[in-house]
């Protein structure tokens, strides 16, 4: 069934990644096993869109691949914290993201602390679950972000993480469009501890969604360790012991320059990377935009086929929220004059 709201999204050409030497090995990738196209109970039938184009994703060399074994670069937006900005994630705003913005992927950012999941596990599970259904119905991929921030050690929330992912996996594991991000930004904790957390949580997800792609946060606020004086080598030397894994990298272009960019450049030639959060401004998600710096990252991600979601699809007062304040309460509009400069810039890069 097609979305009743607007015509199907035109098929996007696959990204021109052939030039990237690191992707040459991808030609050898075996196609992923055929997806179970049956939506999980409760999920609406998917509209034409990226999921229809690419099917079940797998990790293929250093990138994501579609069902045909060819590399896929997903581009889209992250929500803001759902405990604050649920009203920015409506049927209308998700329609706009899928159709007008042309997003391939939506990241649902569910904080664990700061008034998030821990305050109402059932309520937040229902909220995320219903938003997964909304995104799925529009034929778009979804990243379920277990948005740990403080404390920085993901092991502090392991029992809750297992409970949450078991429930989400059992409800939506049959969808074929869900990616699981198990720790937003670990910090003040060793890579060995993050890895051990990942190896505890991943089997719980795989019990319900065996072929799913899981995204693992890296040390130093998902900077591959750079912000804590390390680098990607600790991950390269000691990868998570599981299949279908990608590692996350976050950057804020006005704060993070060459050291971050080089780490992403080196890492993405060796391990599968997914940039699940970035901003064109400072690491506060606020302040002046540095579009020149941001474009260098966009170019690198394009060259290497690194998928990304930008922070964030809300009307928060900060410069990194794509909409002007008040847009969400007014029910849009979800483009045009209601966009801040960062929103206009990123919308052009998703399209
Ligand atoms: C920021 C939000 C802000 C909130 C703060 C604390 O924009 O409203 O008060 O978190 O939770 C991250 C985090 C992300 C941050 C974002 C911008 O993953 O939660 O959002 N950021 O500071 N890492 C680097 C930057």
Describe the fold and architecture.
- This is cellulase.
- GO terms for molecular function: hydrolase activity.
- It is an enzyme of class 3 (hydrolase).
- It catalyses: Endohydrolysis of (1->4)-beta-D-glucosidic linkages in cellulose, lichenin and cereal beta-D-glucans.
- It comes from Nocardiopsis suaedae.
- It is a single chain.
- This protein has a single domain (73-350), classed as TIM Barrel (Alpha-Beta Barrel), CATH 3.20.20.
- The chain has an eight-stranded parallel barrel with strand order 4-5-6-7-8-9-10-11, surrounded by six helices.
- The chain is globular, with a radius of gyration of 18 Å.
- It has helices at 50-54, 82-85, 91-98, 121-137, 158-172, 191-208, 219-222, 233-237, 258-267, 291-304, 341-350, and strands at 58-60, 63-65, 71-72, 75-78, 105-111, 141-147, 178-181, 214-216, 245-252, 273-279, 307-311.
- The protein starts with 49 loop residues before the first helix and ends with a helix.
- Strand 9 (245-252), helix 9 and strand 10 form a beta-alpha-beta unit.
- Helix 4 packs parallel to helix 5 and helix 5 packs parallel to helix 6 (191-208).
- The protein is built from eleven helices and eleven strands.
- By secondary structure, it is of the alpha/beta class.
- 53% of the residues are buried.
- Ligand IDC binds next to strand 9.
